[in-house]
Amino acid sequence: MLPWNDRAGRLSVLKLIVFLGVLAPGLYIAAQAATGTLGSKPITSAIHQSGDWAVRLLLVSLLVTPLRFIADWPKLILVRRMVGVAAAAYALAHLLFYVVEQAFDLQKVASEILLRFYLTIGFVGLGGLVVLAATSTDAMIRRLGSTAWNRLHLLTYPIAFIAIWHFFLQTKIDVSQPVLMLGFFVWLMAFRAMRAAGIQVRPLQLAGLAIISGVATALLEALWYATMTGVMASRILYANLDVGFGIRPALWVTMAGLALVAVNLVRARKAGAPRGRRAAVAAE
């Protein structure tokens, strides 16, 4: 079955758009390589870009379930597998580029993975992603059974955390991007906790979730800098309140959360409109 077809073999516009979307970063990296615009260290740039996209797509795959509820869009489930497999593919490319950078010296690659902690946890995360991708087929779901399969794929959450941790550790100075990914991860996990607690998905609750996630992101960023560099946590927290320093990750997380509030409001309004019209007709 072609990746852009639905289960009946028909073209799915949604799946086609997502397929092109997950393919685009790889094509962009390839285009940069072909045109010599990957920078002075092209392989290193390819390593970083492929790794960044692996983390981003992993978080997008975790966004599918919340967005299904928030936007009342059940068909989104059709693309979750595709996005997750794409995340694994970019993670494999991330490792492959690293092997190329080490001149295909597999012994050196193995020793570096064993000796450098950030590479060790990155490899663990990659191994987990590969296992999840390999078991994402319908055949594997039938073989494992739905209960065992669902339990196995709960590993997506710790794997996502490991990937972000690896992102933090390999980033030298400015950790804005890892902090941003961590902030989104906080929102994604908090949404699941909200659902597990039986809290309804409504605009007010989502707005509270956006604010809480933004504050948590700011606190985690301050804690990281205070722990790793000795910079006073209060200075980092102040930077989050001053847009003169640029829009910090905490604000991006908050704005993204509030954007989902808007999506939920639009969905609720559209869902309520037909009932309103029917009520008007009935009243006549």
TrEMBL record:
It comes from the Bacteria. Binds 1 FMN per subunit. Residues 51-163 form the Ferric oxidoreductase domain. It is a multi-pass membrane protein. The keyword Heme applies. Its cofactor is FMN; heme b. The keyword ATP-binding does not apply. Pfam families: Ferric_reduct. It is found in: Cell membrane; Membrane. Its main location: membrane. Keywords: Cell membrane, Electron transport, Flavoprotein, FMN, Heme, Iron, Membrane, Metal-binding, Transmembrane, Transmembrane helix, Transport. GO terms for molecular function: electron transfer activity; FMN binding; heme binding; metal ion binding; oxidoreductase activity, acting on diphenols and related substances as donors. The chain crosses the membrane at residues 12-33, 53-71, 83-101, 113-136, 148-169, 175-194, 206-226, 246-268. GO terms for biological process: protein repair. GO terms for cellular component: plasma membrane. Heterodimer of a catalytic subunit (MsrP) and a heme-binding subunit (MsrQ). Belongs to the MsrQ family. PANTHER family: PROTEIN-METHIONINE-SULFOXIDE REDUCTASE HEME-BINDING SUBUNIT MSRQ. Part of the MsrPQ system that repairs oxidized periplasmic proteins containing methionine sulfoxide residues (Met-O), using respiratory chain electrons. Thus protects these proteins from oxidative-stress damage caused by reactive species of oxygen and chlorine generated by the host defense mechanisms. MsrPQ is essential for the maintenance of envelope integrity under bleach stress, rescuing a wide series of structurally unrelated periplasmic proteins from methionine oxidation. This is Protein-methionine-sulfoxide reductase heme-binding subunit MsrQ. It comes from Phreatobacter cathodiphilus. The gene is msrQ.
